[in-house]
Each structure stands twice: as C-alpha cells, then as structure tokens.
Amino acid sequence: MLNYIILGIIQGLTEFLPISSSGHLYLFKNFWGVSEDFLSFVVFLHLATLLAIVVYFFKKLKEGLFNFRLLSYISITTIISGIIAIFLKKYIEILSNYRYFIALCFFINSLVLLSVKSKSNNKELKYFGLKDTLMLGLLQGLAVLPGISRAGITIVGLLKRGFVEREAFNLSFIMAIPIIIGAFIGESKYILFDKTISVNMLVSFIVAFFSGILALMLLKRTVIKLKFKLFGYYCLILSILSILVRG
User: What is the pTM of this model?
Assistant: First the structure.
C-alpha cells in the first residue's frame, strides 16, 4: 500500500512540476514492485491529474468552450501530439527499462529548463497562432518520452515564443486535456474491462489528485517568477543518479 501512496504523490507532483511524471514513475518502478500492468497504471493515474486540471482551470475551460479559434488550435495540437505519441508508444515500454535512456531524457529536460532566461514577454492569448499550435503539438508529442516533462517543455516553448508567463502556464495545461483524455481512452480497456481496479490503484488515484492540485499552485508561482533553474538542476542530478544508482 505504501508503494502506491508514494507513486500517487510522485504522479501528482511530477505531472505538473517540470520534472517528468513518467520518468519518475518508471524510475521508481525499478526500485518498487507494482503488480498492475505498469503502462495502464500510469495512464490511470493520469486520469487523476486530468481531474485536477479540470478542477483547477474550471473557469478558464468554461471561457474556452466559446472560443472557436482556440478550440480549432487545440484540435490541431492534439492530432499532431497523438500521431507522435502513437508512433513512439511501442518503443517506450522497451526503452523505459533502460535507466541510461531515462537518464538521457532527464538530462535533455534539464537543459530545456536551464535555457529559460528573464525577458520582457508580452504576447497574450489573442496572439496565439498556427506556428504556436504546431510547436506545441510537436513538443507535447515528444513529452511521452520518460524523463521529458510535458509541462516543462511546453511552457518553456511558449515563453520562448514570447508569451507572458501566466498565458504560457494556462495554455500548456489547457492544451494537454484532450491528449490526456485520448491516452486514457486508448488504455482504458486494459484497466477497466480486463480487470477490476484494485484498492491500491484507487488510493494512488486520490493521492495523485490532491498532490496534483498542490503542484499546480506551486508551478504557477514558479512560472511567474521564472524559477526554472532549480528544477533544471534537480533533473540534472536525477540524470546522474539514474546512471549511478542500481535498482
């Protein structure tokens, strides 16, 4: 039970903090046993963090439902991300068993976070266009790799495109909702129909939801103050530890 509580906390915090939830979960999988099919278990926990996004951004989501332009861009981003994710999926389970690959992804993630510099960004949501959409689709698709943070890489991408911090934060997570739903639907047949959901999985789900809300609050403050370097150094250290420490 303790393993599942810890995995729920890891998922909730790392899904939104720019340090890669999948990388942490696969890394900890090598140290602690998880009886459920691990990929399905990860997707199930993503549903908990999806619920956290919906609750946290509820007001923004209601406004977005009436913004046809934004909805069309979300659709394009989701299609691009989905195609990349489907292509990479068959390799993820294999590559994720090699800590050197996870270490490499953590290292790349650290470089992305350390590249953020303070500058006067001024682009608001109304300036979000097709180039931004294509960029987000590509980055979000690549973020299926364990060790690459979807939140981190997309927020940094938007900041480098000149968007103000709060818009980069909001857009990153609003754009993520359809792809998370798609991933859950794609794997739901394994976790909902082939077997029952265990008590351990439910505990992880609840813990992931509440820790996800907390992580969103922390990340918003981090983005606004541009304190990404701390997370970048953390991922760099984790990359080194991923190689040195054996499970």
Answer: 0.86
pLDDT digits (tens, 9 = 90+) for 180-211: 888 777 766 655 544 556 788 889 899 999 99
| pLDDT, tens only, 107-128 | 999 999 999 987 777 899 889 9
Using CA atoms, how far apart are residues 33 and 36, in angstroms rounded to an integer? 9
- The DSSP secondary structure of the chain, one letter per residue, reads -HHHHHHHHHHHHHHHTTT-HHHHHHHHHTTS---S-HHHHHHHHHHHHHHHHHHHTHHHHHHHTT-HHHHHHHHHHHHHHHHHHHHHHHHHHHHTT-HHHHHHHHHHHHHHHHT-------B-GGG--HHHHHHHHHHHHHTTSTT--HHHHHHHHHHHTTB-HHHHHHHHHHTHHHHHHHHHHHHHIIIIISSPPPHHHHHHHHHHHHHHHHHHHHHHHHHHHT-HHHHHHHHHHHHHHHHH---
In the block, which residue shows the tokens 């959901």?
197
Q: What is the C-alpha to C-alpha distance for residues 59 and 240, in angstroms, rounded to an integer?
A: 41
Give the chain's end-to-end CA distance (angstroms, integer): 20
Burial class (CB in 10 A: 0-12, 13-18, 19+), 161: middle
Alpha carbon distance 66, 56 (integer Å)? 19
